[in-house]
Structures are given as C-alpha cells and as structure tokens.
Amino acid sequence: MAAIGWVFVHGWGLDAGFWQPLRAALSAQPGACGAGVQHALDAGYFGAAGPRIDWAAASRWIAVGHSLGWARAWLEGATEAPPGGWAASVSVCGFTRFCATAPGQSGQATRVVDRMVRAFDHDASAVLRDFLARCGLPDLASAASTTPDTAGLRADLARLRDLDLPPAAWSAVPLLALAARDDAIVSPALTHECFGAAPRARLAWHDSAGHALGRIHAHWCAEHLQRFVQELPHG
C-alpha cells in the first residue's frame, strides 16, 4: 500500500489528459510524493469515464482539482471520493464560487455562463474552442472537434454558475491553493475571497501562467505539491 494516493479531477471542457504533464512531474519527485498512486478521473465530456479507483491502494488520498474540478471533488455525488474522506486537497486555479452573486463580490457575471449555455444549442464545439483559447489551452482544442457530451457539459455549466461551496464542506483538512496572478478566468481577488481566510489553506502564486497553470508549469506545481506533502500531519 502506498502512503499517498493522488486523485486528479479536471475542469470544465477538458478531459483527464490535461493532467499528463503534472502527473509526470509529480512522479519524478522524491519520497512518498513521487511514489504515490495516481488516478485521473474523467468526467466523460469526450468519451467514457475511466475505471473506478481501488481505495485500498493508499492509506491517504489527496484530491487535486483544476478549476471546477476542485469543487467537484467536494460535491457529493459529483466524483468518486475515498470512504474515509480526503486527507487534503490541492486547488489549481480552483474556487468555491465562480460567479458574483452579490454586490461587491469578485467572479464572473452569471450572464456570461448563461450565454455559454445558450450557445451550446447552436455550436457546442465553437463554445469549447473559444473557452480553451481564453484559458490559454488552445493545444487541447482538438478534443472539442470530437462529438462532445453536450448534456453533461451543459449540466456542469449550470453547476458552475450556481456553485457556492461552504467552508464546512472542505476546510477541515489542509488545502494548497495554486493560482496565477494573470488568470483571466479566476481572478486573484476571487481566489482570495474563496480561500484567503481558511485557517488550513496556503496560497502559492505564479506570475504568468493564466488558467493553464496546472499544465504549462507542471514542474512548478509538482515542487509545491512535494513541499505540501512534507508538511502534512502524519497519521
């Protein structure tokens, strides 16, 4: 049995392949961090979901989520979760709330997400390509050229719009929040509003990664994950 198990949860409009660079960089890290069991969940937007996880393969499991993927790891029924709960979590450009729903809040306007939902009825692939370009991930747009699961993507857009994950759902375990100061999708202000006051959260900032942080700066992320694991309480 491995000491650490990693479960990677991708964001909206992506698939499990998003994590390939980070998974490789993490495997190269020394100790329990690099030797950990890895699983990348797939929401099935562009094909079948992956195999179920053998939770007995590791003693402690850490959820690593990109964008909406981090919240999905905490939403009941949205993804698989270990029987004993997550030992810790890592947010990569993630959030507890995406849209601004009250005056003075940071976040995207709900009308932006509603417009994307409506556009799906006309050209879902175009919506995906535009979104991936804004994320700084145009190299992943080839997946959008396949026939996507528009029902699943539309349902998760609604989940994205309505998301408001309370601290009680996630703040009992250590959290590492990796974020980019130039993220055009999740602003630094929103990251601070979501995680800045959590007593067990630690934020780490990259200056120029955009919303593609987990993919284009995989080694930077892996080094932070290594330090995070070293600082986790044992047991």
**In the residues, how many domains can be counted?**
1
What are the secondary-structure elements, in order, as H or E? EHHEEHEHHEHEHH
Q: Can you give the helix content as a percent range? A: 25-40%
Strand order of the largest sheet: 2-1-3-4-5-6
Query: What separation lies between the terminal Cα atoms?
Result: 14 Å
Low-confidence stretches: none
Structural class: alpha/beta
Q: Give a count of the beta strands, DSSP E runs of length 2 or more.
A: 6
Name the CATH homologous superfamily.
Answer: Alpha/Beta hydrolase fold, catalytic domain
Mean pLDDT across every amino acid position: 91
Q: Looking at the structure, what is the overall shape?
A: globular
> What is the percentage of strand-forming residues?
15-25%
The major beta sheet can be summarized as:
6 strands, parallel
Give the class-level CATH name.
Alpha Beta
CATH architecture: 3-Layer(aba) Sandwich
**How many separate helices?**
8
3D structure, described in words:
By secondary structure, the chain is α/β, with parallel strands linked by helices. It has one domain (2-98, 164-231): Rossmann fold, CATH 3.40.50.1820. The protein has eight helices and six strands; from the N terminus they run E-H-H-E-E-H-E-H-H-E-H-E-H-H. Strands 2-1-3-4-5-6 form a six-stranded parallel beta sheet, sandwiched between helices. The mean pLDDT is 91.
